[in-house]
Amino acid sequence: MGGDEIGLDDKKNACPELVARRDALGFAYTGDVFVDFLNTLNQQVRSHGKTTQVWEWRDQYGQKSSIEPDRTIVFDDYIDSDPAPLVAKGYTVVAAPEPVLYVSAGMGQKLGQYGYVDIRDVYERYAFPTPESAGGRVLGYKVARSVAFLDHFARRPLQVVAAERTWGSTRASSIWAFLGRVDAVGGPPGSPSGRLTAVPKAGITVTADSQETVAEDGRVDNLIDDNPYTAWHTAYSPAAAPMPHRVTMDLGGSRRLAGFRYLPRQDGGTNGRVGQWTLDISDDGVA
Q1: 9-185, what's its fold?
Q2: Which of 1, 53, 81, 157 has its CA 20 to 30 A from that of 40?
Q3: Cα 7–76–25 angle (5° rounding)?
Q4: How distant, in Å, are the alpha carbons of 27, 60, 76, 162 from that of 89?
Q5: Angle at the Cα of 201 from the Cα atoms of 231 and 205, rounded to 5 degrees
Q6: Where are the domains of the chain?
């Protein structure tokens, strides 16, 4: 069930119905009405052999209650980066930490900001407390993703990163090494991309009619380095190179192609994004 983002204490205390219910039950706080509701609902759910799962919210941002939710309730812990404190209180947890596993359109404008998850940070730095390190009470992790958001997450699914870190073997040397493995494996079985794999970057040579190397690292090689922190930019120092511009990719041999993916720059800037474009295929790079 939900429960997240209900009114904070000032709003609850201004609700006549909640105040009346608090007084009728002899509770100290209007927040107790919500906790009592959770426990009542939990009894009904458990009577059917099921488990109640609730978003953790009732004690956030200074909200007060004098009674505790039943320990048989499983909490989705999304406020905290570390589920350990909630586990220490005796609760079983499914972790969906906001700073790490939240993808929400329209929030952050560049990698690392709220809702625009930095998968490098998630893969290489987040500890992912395991059931073993948390007394067996961390059931797992889940990604909270708002609709279809950004090609970066379609091609580099945060779900895959989370799965690798929680269920996988020893971490790769870097996020880029891991994503290279993802490209080589292809999409999930049965998916539209299930039989598709990326053309190996090691066999690609890329050239362009223009690149910026003075004012920033806008080399054309950045197009195929699998790093969202870099971008190709046409020359603008000391003067902007006139359009149109052309990029040529030599795939190192004949390839059967099913599609093409282009990731715009991810640092919040707009200069350098492709406006109008055409994709041409050639056997020799000329005709």
Answers
A1: TIM Barrel (3.20.20)
A2: 81
A3: 45
A4: 22, 15, 14, 25
A5: 75
A6: 9-185, 199-287
